[in-house]
Structure formats: C-alpha cells, structure tokens
Design a protein that fits this description.
Largest sheet: none
Shape: globular
Oligomer: single chain
Helix content: over 70%
Number of helices: 9
Order of helices and strands: HHHHHHHHH
Length: about 220
C-alpha cells in the first residue's frame, strides 16, 4: 500500500525505483486488497440506493418480499461488478502497454495498482455526492459532465464528458510519467499511447453507461 501511495504522490521517483527493481513485489495480495475494497464500495453504493432507480418500475409489479429480493440481487450484482471491473482495470491496460512498450508485464500491473486507487478515490467521492446531494456521475463537479449539459444535448457526448474527470487526467499523468521512465520509447510515443488507450476506455465507459445494460436484462 505504501508503494501505491508513493506512486500517486511521486510518480517519477516511483518509476526510478521500479525500473531498478529486479523482481517487483508479488501482485496477488494487492489484487485481493483492491478487489475487496472495490466490492465493498460497490456494495455500499447499492445499499444506499445509488443507481437503484432501475428497480423503481418494479415497485408496483412485485410484492414486498419479491422487491426486497430484487434489491438484494442488485446489490450482489454491483459487488460482483466491482470485482470484475477492478480486475479489468488492473490487467487489461497492463496487457495493452506491454504489447506496445515491451515493459515487464508485472511492473505495468504495479502501475495499475496506483491507477485503481485513483478510481476508488473517485468512487468514494461519487458515493458521498450521491448520498448527501443526490448527484450522479453525470453531474459530478469533478468531471466535464456539468459543462456538457450546457453545451450539448447529445446523450452519448454527455456520457463521454461525464466520464472525463480530473481523476482521469491524474491517471494519464501517472501512466505517462512512469511508462516514460521504464520504456525506451520517445516521450511523444508514450504520451500518444496513454491518450489513445484512455480515450478508448472513456468511449467504452460512456457507451456502457448510455446503453445501461442492467435495463436490458
């Protein structure tokens, strides 16, 4: 955990240390810790009723016991999704950057540990905003979603803007800083691959939010 905080606060110094590490610390323990924290946060979000508006139409069609069962299943689904998305965020970007930079895969996973920490910090703040003020991610003061609501009515574009936040820019900064040290590629190339991957991820996340797969079930 100290290394993750060190990476967040001093990414360049962390990169130097990681560059000279012959064998980075095992990844299993940190993976379990982060997936556990993520599952907890997604579970808390569900228990607080955040994003549970998809269950509202069922209130009049189900008995109380059936509705409570639906709520429980929703919470379980959120917990499982928290685990799955954390694993994706740890290992998919690492695979992408490994293929284009040839940096040791385990070292790239260690970078993603810090990235997932940032995402979990943002998740905590979104939970607080949702519970205290009723704001969803589209209206987060940390993202471009609020500005987007004044400049466009295109739903997909609004979703993309709501995904782009100061935390996502922090992620790009850390990835760029550390990968630039670990890789023999040019700074321009590293910046481009970091931007390319994150923009693709933002688009995917926005489409996922727009389609709202839970409503399709």
């Amino acid at each position: 955990m100290k290394n993750m905080i060190f990476c967040l606060m001093k990414p360049y110094e962390y990169a130097i240390r990681l560059e000279h590490a012959e064998s980075p610390n095992p990844i299993l323990k940190k993976t379990l810790v982060l997936t556990g924290i993520s599952a907890l946060l997604f579970g808390i979000s569900a228990l607080l009723g955040l994003k549970s508006e998809i269950l509202s139409p069922a209130i009049f069609d189900l008995s109380n016991s059936e509705y409570e069962t639906q709520k429980m299943l929703f919470a379980i689904g959120q917990i499982l999704w928290g685990i799955v998305i954390t694993l994706i965020l740890l290992f998919l970007p690492s695979l992408f950057f490994w293929t284009v930079t040839e940096i040791e895969y385990k070292k790239l996973v260690h970078i993603q540990f810090a990235i997932v920490c940032i995402i979990l910090i943002e998740k905590v703040l979104l939970i607080l905003l949702g519970y205290l003020y009723g704001l969803d991610s589209n209206s987060s003061p940390f993202s471009l979603g609020i500005i987007g609501q004044y400049v466009t009515s295109n739903e997909i574009l609004l979703k993309i803007l709501s995904v782009i936040s100061i935390f996502k820019l922090w992620i790009i900064y850390i990835q760029y800083t550390v990968i630039k040290v670990l890789s023999d590629k040019s700074a321009t190339f590293v910046l481009l691959i970091c931007l390319a991957f994150n923009i693709m991820w933002w688009i995917f996340a926005a489409i996922f939010k727009y389609l709202d797969f839970a409503k399709l079930l």
